[in-house]
Amino acid sequence: MKIFLMSIFLSGFLNTLGQQFNSIIPAPVEMKTLPGNFSIGKTTTIKFNTAQKELYAAAQFLKDHINSISGYNLEFNKPATTMLELKLGKINDIGNEGYLLSVTPSSINITANTKTGIVYGLQSLFQLLPAIRTNAALTVSCMNIKDYPRFKWRGMHLDVSRHFFGPEFVKKYIDLMSQYKFNTFHWHLTDDQGWRIEIKKYPLLTQIGAWRVDKNNITWSSRPQAQLGEQANYGGYYTQEQIKDIIKYAALRNITIVPEIEMPGHSAAAIASYPFLSCLQQAQLPMTGGNYTNISSNYCAGNDSAFTFLENVLTEVMNLFPSQYIHVGGDEVDKTSWKNCPKCQERMKKEGLKNEEELQSYFIKRIEKFISSKKRKMIGWDEILEGGLAPEATVMSWRGEAGGIEAAKMNHNVVMTPGTPLYFDHYQADPATEPRAIGGFNTLKRVYDYNPIPKELDEQQSKFILGAQANLWAEFITTSKQVEYMVLPRMLALAEVLWSPQAAKDWNNFNERLQYHLKAFDQKGLNYSKGNFKVNINPSIQDGKLLVSLSTEAYKGQVYYTSDGTTPDLSSKKYTTPISIDSSVTIKAITVVDGKIMSAIPAQQSFILHKAIGKNVSYTNPVSPYYRANGPSSLTDGVRGTEEIGKYWQGFSEKDMIATVDLGQSESIHSLTLGCLQHYNDWIFLPQFVKFETSENGVDFEEVKTIINPIDMNQKTALYDFKATFAQRNVRYIRVTAKNNPCPPGHSGAGKPSWIFTDELIVQ
Length: 764
Ligand code: ACM
Ligand code: ZN
What we know:
Blueprint: H1 2-11, E1 30-40, E2 45-47, H2 53-70, E3 75-76, E4 83-88, E5 99-104, E6 107-112, H3 115-127, E7 138-147, E8 153-159, H4 167-179, E9 184-188, E10 190-191, E11 194-195, H5 204-207, E12 211-212, E13 234-235, H6 240-252, E14 256-263, H7 268-273, H8 304-320, E15 325-329, H9 336-339, H10 342-351, H11 356-373, E16 377-381, E17 394-397, H12 402-409, E18 414-416, H13 419-422, H14 444-448, H15 459-462, E19 465-470, H16 480-487, H17 490-499, H18 507-524, E20 536-542, E21 545-551, E22 558-562, E23 573-574, E24 579-581, E25 585-593, E26 596-597, E27 603-607, E28 616-619, E29 650-653, E30 657-679, E31 689-695, E32 702-708, E33 717-738, E34 755-763
Parallel strand pairs: 2-3, 2-4, 4-6, 8-9, 8-19, 9-14, 14-15, 15-16, 16-17, 17-18, 18-19
Antiparallel strand pairs: 1-7, 5-6, 5-7, 10-11, 12-13, 20-21, 21-24, 22-23, 22-25, 25-26, 25-27, 28-30, 29-34, 30-33, 30-34, 31-32, 31-33
The chain binds acetamide (ACM) and zinc ion (ZN).
């Protein structure tokens, strides 16, 4: 009994009943705790078959870890009363990456079909032990685990071009990935602002391309271009020796590194090193930030020597990296330089290419042919679909899931990395309280709730979804501490998305297990986000009534709120059940943990009551599946949109928004208002005009008024209510038409149809 109590006290991971607190993330597929426990002691031996060389490396990994947390120096294959056994077997149902972990009073056994599975078993075991050096007993309760992953591609990306992160930090990142059973590190090695990989044949790539003029004190997009002759000393690169060392380090930890060499765009740093690669062939320096004026960032698609260069670079890259997949970028190519280049135009003529999209497709297909000839597979961002997808290409879907869905339907492999919710450079908590980030709002729970299999795919098509990945772009991430902050703890949520069965996902349980890991981050000095404390205000319509529920992601968080416009505090109402809204109000809410207000600024949301609340709406053109707001009732849910795009705005792509509302009975009304949003950079524009029509029978409509858009299309953001007032009239049906407004001259989509975003049709 005494020993038992000691172990509870010292290890801290057994609860008062002596049961193991399950701290494993990602949650194992099957886990059963049994009576009794096992303690790793000084004399515990590590048992394995020494003839299996791979096991030797895994055994050493185990030995090193136990040494780091206890100081014990466990020996291999010594006679002992307690042992840690690693064993390769032939086990059904667990595949190449799965493992069995069993803890009995005298041993811990990890069995798998491969060394990969053994290492994952070890990672689970490590999460049941103290995270840092301790004098405590290393006690684990008896249990059986059977575990294997849901997806093959479990990725994390790191942009080392916008800021360079040295080899030691890259290893730390790989360690973190491995602990949470990720298996793919997407290393974004080249971009406009820096080339980061030594290429022996082209030494200027790192002598020139790895260094930029330091303008870091100016906001990313406003930085002036570097002038030739200015001192360029901000940056760095990896030597081939360092890369080999990192690849080896990663391999022991089950991580494959997929290198990305960007083309045909995002290549200003390569062009700075070798100006012959671009259409203009003019001297330039690597970019200082995000201002592309007077910069060449594309390889010339008409120049064969650019292809020779890329093949030589890729040859060295493939000699270094054993990865089956080689990433070639392909995103965000501004094709203006190709339009103005005689060689590119000549190429298009010769190859019978109709436009520059087809020229990009030609470029990527030509590179794929080369990569395939070396028995590797090409992967690229979803723009590689434009102008025709290369025959064997794998698509990384980042502009939402649309590209991934399209590719899967064409029987191409897909990795899902949609900006929402998998861009970890986006905010994870209330932007008002966070360090500057690029934008967006991808909270821990939004990541946790993600399912990489879109509803649009059937079972057969879903098989082409290899998995998913979070991307970390570094425009606004200047230190390795900030990298830690942006990925922790969101990568733990993604780990569970990618590994654990979809049906077993449980947010509250995850949040509870997470607490062990947050404590471990504190113990190890890792910088992590303490959480999103902004209350989520979520309206819904039930039986024609507007209800609002309030929730917080904070562990054991409570919500306090007001509805009279005042700032909530600890004396405000505590939220328990959904609030019924029966007048136009503004709800303000805060998160409270252990009696402490966690949100610096309350969340708030306005509601407007009017005659169409909860009424049925039908649309002539469909709402975009990406911007559904609260679903079909969104236009009449009483919820006003904010400047945040994803929230409460319905989006209509390229077409007019035509909605018809049935009030259910004849009503006397005197004003109609349609709320709309403009977001210039996202191709969202206020409509050219909004026409309001009414009807008593739903067939014969009469125009009431048409309101012309008075707002300048060059305004970056605008919220505008198109409001018509008129003499009181009786109507049952209302039809509203918002006319699509093509993108204005000077916009990157000039002349093309835009988006219309609407939040509410207010009937008074
Ligand atoms: C990307 O975010 N441009 C792939
Ligand atoms: Zn050209």
